[in-house]
UniProtKB/TrEMBL annotation:
Lineage: Bacteria, Bacillati, Bacillota, Clostridia, Lachnospirales
Subcellular location: Cell membrane
Keyword Repeat: no
Top-level taxon in the UniProt lineage: Bacteria
GO molecular function: antiporter activity; xenobiotic transmembrane transporter activity
UniProt KW Repeat keyword: no
Classification via Pfam families: MatE (PF01554)
Record protein name field: Multidrug export protein MepA
Family statement drawn from the similarity comment of this UniProt entry: Belongs to the multi antimicrobial extrusion (MATE) (TC 2.A.66.1) family. MepA subfamily.
GO biological process terms held by the UniProt record: response to antibiotic
This protein's GO CC annotations: plasma membrane
Entry keywords, A to Z: Antibiotic resistance, Cell membrane, Membrane, Transmembrane, Transmembrane helix, Transport
Mode of membrane association: Multi-pass membrane protein
Length: 461
């Protein structure tokens, strides 16, 4: 069947660009409609800043739940790419079937458990008496869309890994456009404010989910969703490989939650709520860096996985160079924007000059290490794409430990307002370690694969 990109024969440089750019744009659009939510909320008359702080507390909870999509999607899609590279279509189809069932079951389980624990989670994660009601309204409605959110995000990875990057982008774009259109309708026309933003988000997730599933059940992709042939061993391997991106996202949110708790503890209710609002805006800007960056390095994993399965190290190395170069180019542009015009971004959320001044300073500090951060993403996602989970998990966890240590010590030594330095400290140290490890083990990983390359023929293992 005809695909948008031929992973076997297309020139590597063009292949990287054709897969990376749609994935990057899809993630950028995804972040954009999250920011649109916060922009409208921040401009609610009279309660904008405090509402924004409440939604900021919900952010890590929602993202942590969403990480389940990457546990299955990013865990299964590289394995499927490897099987496709081996020309083992039956095994690739089995992986997709098992991943669909696994993600559907996990979606239901996480929806139920999150509803039962949401109020305690909000208080643990930094909600104050002033922000709790806004946070509770927002999270209650968003949790209703958990199944749609996880299925659309997780199963979209299986569209991209088959070479349909543009189709994957369209699914995200559909959700974004729906959210941008529905936000002002539910928030201001119907007067639902924070609850309206959540309703618009859920309806947008439903639209994306239906689009993704319609494609994967249709006739266009070479590997379609089927039922049956379920195997716990397949699911177990998916979960093991997906553990790396899952832990990356989950621990990112643990760190954000820790920051929120520390801000509330050391800042008190008045300064704490102000710093939480500023941190929400800073994290919104960082999402504009990390999500598209993850689109570049994650969207091109299929090139690495396919050629790893095919036993072609030359194409893997070429792809790695082009992926890293593209990622570095993107983070350089974002670094320049963060250090020259951050005030324009901040004013989208608030016109309060005290908030603007503090947040502009915080963005400049928080983004000091984002240029080398590109290499961290390229290394970790590269190892995930080739199914080398242990190295990816070790490198990503090292970065989280450094961040957590900084978050715990910096407020004690230098004051709570200096907590924004935790990000650049962890960025610089982790990149140095990740690049060093890559230089030491990458060739050995490729040689081991080449030595154990299976003898495969079209459709036969």
């Amino acid at each position: 069947m005809k695909t948008e990109n031929n992973l076997d024969t297309d020139q590597i440089r063009g292949l990287v660009w054709r897969l990376a750019i749609p994935s990057m744009l899809a993630q950028f659009v995804s972040v954009f409609y999250s920011i649109v939510d916060r922009m409208y909320i921040g401009n609610i008359a009279g309660t904008g800043e405090i509402s924004l702080a409440g939604v900021g507390i919900c952010g890590p909870i929602i993202t942590m739940i969403s990480s389940v999509a990457f546990l299955v999607g990013v865990g299964g899609s590289p394995l499927m790419s490897i099987r496709m590279g081996e020309k083992n279509q039956r095994a690739a189809s089995q992986i997709l079937a098992n991943c669909f069932l696994l993600l559907a079951v996990l979606s239901v389980l996480f929806t139920i458990s999150s509803f039962l624990a949401k109020e305690k989670l909000l208080m643990w994660f930094g909600a104050s008496e002033a922000t709790f009601s806004y946070a509770n309204d927002y999270i209650t409605i968003c949790l209703l869309g958990t199944v749609f959110a996880l299925l659309s995000t997780g199963m979209n990875q299986f569209i991209i890994c088959q070479g349909f990057a543009k189709t994957g982008m369209k699914s995200v774009l559909l959700g974004a456009v729906c959210n941008i259109v529905l936000d002002p309708v539910f928030m201001f026309v119907f007067g639902l404010e924070v609850r309206g933003a959540a309703i618009a988000t859920v309806l947008s997730q439903m639209a994306s989910c239906f689009y993704v599933l319609r494609f994967l059940f249709g006739d266009k992709p070479p590997i379609r969703i089927t039922f049956g042939n379920y195997d716990w061993q397949v699911m177990k391997r998916v979960l093991m490989l997906g553990l790396s991106p899952f832990l990356i996202i989950a621990f990112d949110n643990v760190l954000i939650i820790s920051l929120n708790m520390l801000i509330q503890r050391y800042g008190g209710e008045s300064q704490g709520d102000m710093l939480l609002t500023c941190m929400t805006i800073v994290q919104s800007f960082m999402l504009m860096v990390t999500m598209p960056l993850g689109g570049i390095t994650g969207g091109t994993q299929t090139i690495l996985g396919y050629n790893y399965g095919a036993g072609r190290p030359d194409r893997i190395k070429k792809a790695g160079i082009h992926i890293s170069s593209l990622a570095l180019g993107f983070t350089t542009i974002m670094f320049i924007l963060a250090h020259t015009v951050p005030q324009y971004f901040v004013r989208i959320f608030t016109q309060n000059e005290a908030y603007v001044e503090l947040t502009v300073w915080a963005i400049k500090i928080y983004t000091m290490g984002i240029i080398p951060l590109a290499l961290q993403y390229a290394v970790v996602d590269g190892f995930v794409g080739m199914g080398v989970a242990k190295v990816a998990i070790s490198l990503s966890m090292f970065r989280k430990v450094i961040f957590l240590g900084g978050a715990a010590l910096i407020p004690v030594w230098f004051g709570i307002d200096k907590i924004f330095y935790t990000e650049p400290v962890s960025d610089f140290i982790s990149v140095l370690v990740s690049v060093t490890v890559t230089l030491l083990v990458f060739d050995r990983v490729l040689k081991k694969r080449e030595a154990n390359k299976p003898l495969t023929y079209e459709g036969v293992e």
